[in-house]
C-alpha cells in the first residue's frame, strides 16, 4: 500500500559532531546517508556491511516466496516477541498469491548505531492476478551482527519514524488474517469475520459479472476486498471528499505503485464491519457500487464526485427490479421541494450525504434515460480529457445545465417513488 516518502533519519553523537567540526573528519561508517556526492563523503559504506544486510533481505524474501519457515526465522535475532510477531506475518503472507516479493534499499539511508545499523528498506509486493505492477512500501529495519559478516533483523518497526512517514500497514502486517478466494476475488478476513466469507465471496463474484455488463471499460475483472472485524484499517484510509467516514458502509481506495509513483497498481475496497452480517440484496448492491469504482479506476480522477458516485449508484441498481431500488425517504421529500444544483465536491460526504448520493444517482439516471446508457460514461471520459468545466461539457454534449439536470433528477424521483 502506498505511503508518503520516507524521511531519512540520522543520528550522531555530540562527541562525533565535535570531531567533525574541529577536525573535519568522521570515523568510517559512523554516519551514512548525507546529501553529498560519494566522492565528498568522509567515508564510504563498508562493502561487507552492505553485503551482509543485502544477504539478510534476500534470504528473507526468498523464504517468503518459497514458503520456507525455518529460513525465514533464521534471519531474525533471538528475540521471542519479534519472532512471534514475524512468524504471524510470514503465515499471513503465505496465504497471498504472491507474484513478486523482494527488497531494495539505498545505501545512503544506512545509519550506524553502535555495532547495529538502521536502514530504510523498500518492499516490492505484487499480488498475482490483482496488481498491475508491484506495490512499493517503505519501512525501517534494525540489523545486529550475528557471526562474522552476517547480520540478523532485530526490529522491523520504528513507530516514531512510521508516524512521521505516514506509513499505513496492510492488515497482514498488523495481526493474523485469514485469506479466502473465489473466481476473481481475493478476500482478506480475520478470525472473527471469516464466517462471512462464503456469502461475501459469492456476492463479489456475482458483482463482477453484473458490473462488467454495464461498465463499458476493459478491466481485470478481479477484486481485492477487505472484510475485517475491526475498523482500524478503514479508519486509516484517506477520508472521502467533503467529510469523514461517517456512515459509510464501504470505501474503494487506490493503491499507488510507490509513495513517489502515482501509477495505479490496483483499486481495492473495504467493507465496514457492520456489513459482515448484512447479507442480502442491500449488501449486494453496496458490493456492486464498490466494484464499479474498481472497474472505473482512475478514469474518474478528474470528474466531480457527483458523477463518480452517481455512476457507481446507477450501475449498482441495474440488476434489481425497479420496485426494489430503495431510496432514502428524505431524498423523496427533497425531490418534491426541488433540487436546484448538483452536489458540490467539498460537502458531498457531509451531513446531507444521503441526499448527495440520491441526487447523483438520479442525475446519472436522467442522462442514461434521455441519451442512452453509455452517456454517463461518455461524460466521465470527457471530464478527464482537457479540464473543460462540467457546465460547459453538459451544454456541449447534452444541451443541458447542472440546474436543469438536477431538476430532471427531482422529477424522476417524484414520479418513480410516488
Report on the structure:
By secondary structure, the chain is of the alpha+beta class. It has 15 helices and ten strands. Strands 1, 2, 3, 4 and 5 form a five-stranded antiparallel β-sheet that branches. A five-stranded mixed β-sheet has the order 6-7-8-10-9. The longest helix has 20 residues, at 47-66. The model is unreliable at 1-42 (pLDDT under 50).
How is this fold's topology laid out?
Layout: H1 14-23, H2 47-66, H3 69-74, H4 80-93, E1 98-105, E2 111-113, E3 116-127, E4 135-145, E5 151-155, H5 159-165, H6 171-174, E6 178-182, E7 185-189, H7 197-214, E8 223-226, H8 232-236, E9 250-258, E10 261-271, H9 281-296, H10 305-317, H11 329-337, H12 353-371, H13 375-383, H14 390-398, H15 402-417
Parallel strand pairs: 7-8, 8-10
Antiparallel strand pairs: 1-3, 2-3, 3-4, 4-5, 6-7, 9-10
Helix pairs in contact: 7-9, 9-10, 10-12, 11-12, 11-15, 12-15
Amino acid at each position: 500500500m502506498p505511503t508518503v516518502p520516507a524521511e531519512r533519519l540520522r543520528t550522531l553523537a555530540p562527541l562525533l559532531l565535535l570531531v567533525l567540526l574541529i577536525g573535519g573528519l568522521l570515523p568510517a561508517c559512523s554516519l551514512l546517508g548525507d546529501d553529498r556526492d560519494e566522492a565528498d563523503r568522509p567515508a564510504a559504506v563498508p562493502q561487507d556491511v552492505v553485503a551482509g544486510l543485502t544477504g539478510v533481505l534476500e534470504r528473507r524474501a526468498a523464504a517468503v516466496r518459497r514458503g520456507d519457515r525455518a529460513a525465514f526465522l533464521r534471519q531474525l535475532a533471538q528475540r521471542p516477541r519479534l519472532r512471534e510477531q514475524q512468524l504471524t506475518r510470514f503465515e499471513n503472507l503465505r496465504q497471498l498469491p504472491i507474484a513478486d516479493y523482494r527488497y531494495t534499499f539505498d545505501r545512503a539511508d544506512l545509519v550506524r548505531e553502535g555495532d547495529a545499523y538502521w536502514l530504510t528498506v523498500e518492499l516490492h509486493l505484487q499480488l498475482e492476478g490483482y496488481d498491475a505492477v508491484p506495490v512499493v512500501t517503505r519501512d525501517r529495519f534494525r540489523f545486529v551482527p550475528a557471526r562474522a559478516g552476517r547480520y540478523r533483523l532485530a526490529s522491523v518497526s520504528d513507530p516514531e519514524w512510521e508516524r512521521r512517514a505516514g506509513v499505513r500497514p496492510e492488515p497482514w502486517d498488523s495481526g493474523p488474517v485469514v485469506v479466502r478466494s473465489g473466481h476473481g476475488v481475493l478476500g482478506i478476513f480475520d478470525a472473527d469475520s471469516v464466517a462471512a466469507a462464503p456469502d461475501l465471496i459469492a456476492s463479489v463474484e456475482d458483482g463482477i459479472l453484473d458490473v462488467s455488463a454495464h461498465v463499458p471499460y476493459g478491466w481485470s475483472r478481479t477484486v481485492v476486498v477487505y472484510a475485517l472485524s475491526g475498523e482500524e484499517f478503514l479508519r486509516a484510509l484517506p477520508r472521502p471528499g467533503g467529510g469523514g467516514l461517517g456512515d459509510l458502509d464501504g470505501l474503494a481506495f487506490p493503491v499507488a505503485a510507490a509513495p513517489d509513483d502515482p501509477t495505479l497498481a490496483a483499486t481495492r475496497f473495504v467493507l465496514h464491519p457492520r456489513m459482515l452480517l448484512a447479507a442480502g440484496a442491500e449488501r449486494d448492491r453496496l458490493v456492486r457500487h464498490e466494484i464499479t469504482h474498481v472497474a472505473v479506476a482512475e478514469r474518474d480522477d478528474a470528474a466531480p464526485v457527483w458523477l463518480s458516485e452517481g455512476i457507481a449508484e446507477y450501475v449498482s441498481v441495474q440488476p434489481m427490479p425497479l420496485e426494489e431500488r430503495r431510496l432514502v425517504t428524505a431524498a423523496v421529500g427533497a425531490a418534491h421541494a426541488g433540487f436546484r444544483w448538483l452536489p458540490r465536491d467539498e460537502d458531498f460526504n457531509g451531513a446531507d450525504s444521503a441526499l448527495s448520493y440520491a441526487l447523483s444517482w438520479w442525475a446519472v439516471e436522467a442522462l442514461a434515460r434521455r441519451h442512452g446508457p453509455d452517456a454517463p460514461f461518455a461524460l466521465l471520459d470527457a471530464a478527464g480529457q482537457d479540464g473543460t468545466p462540467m457546465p460547459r461539457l453538459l451544454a456541449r454534449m447534452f444541451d443541458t445545465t447542472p440546474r436543469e439536470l438536477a431538476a430532471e433528477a427531482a422529477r424522476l424521483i417524484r414520479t418513480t417513488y410516488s
